[in-house]
Amino acid sequence: MSLVRADIEPLTFVFADDGLVPNNPMPFLVYKGAVAVANAHPEATIEKLFGANGWGAMWRNGVYDFAHYHATVHEVLGVARGHARVRFGGDRGRDLEISAGDVAILPAGTGHQCLSASDDFCVVGAYPPGPPLEITRPTPENHARALKTIPLVALPKTDPVRGESGPLVRLWK
Questions:
Q1: φ and ψ at residue 99, rounded to 5 degrees
Q2: Cα(110)–Cα(150) distance, integer angstroms
Q3: Residue ranges of the domains in the chain?
Q4: In 41, 46, 78, 172, which residue has its Cα 20 to 30 A from 59's Cα atom?
């Protein structure tokens, strides 16, 4: 059985720079119900998928309850269990409900903050090859630095859900 529907396409959102959260002109992607997680080890299922598609440095946890972004790396979040309301794109972004089986792919600079979550909410995070993760809070000083680093972040060679021919490869330029 495949972990992912071969034809699944992500929702796309582009968030403007709001002066504190830089966001990214490349689209933020959300695959709804992408991963088959109705099994005893949903975290391992997501880790296997991300790893097979070249995304690593994985972790398991939730999403921080404070606004932040990553200015040196792109990030993927795969929801293994539960559900949450997460604000993506900063205060002028969008609040989205994400739940088990969903995958969110954040281009460098995309703000995110957990607003509420079920007690069992668990996410697997991963990154394409590149520099280590830095957690950046939205301040004027951090924003100015991020505007210099975000354009230098290399494009991933693969979509963490659909691999070398996935939508990310075509949508992120």
A1: -145, 170
A2: 10
A3: 14-162
A4: 172
Query: 99 - beta bridge partners?
Result: 83
d(CA 94, CA 15): 8
Question: Long-range contact list for 94-99, CB < 8 A, 24+ apart?
Answer: 94/13, 94/15, 96/30, 98/30
Contact between residue 46 and residue 101 where contact means Cβ atoms under 8 Å apart: no
pLDDT by residue (tens digit) across 61-116? Answer: 999 999 999 999 999 999 999 999 999 999 999 999 999 999 999 999 999 999 99
The CATH superfamily holding the domain 14-162 is Jelly Rolls (2.60.120.10)
Tokens of residue 50, six digits: 């991300």
What the block records as the tokens of 30 is 């959300």
Burial class (CB in 10 A: 0-12, 13-18, 19+), 59: exposed
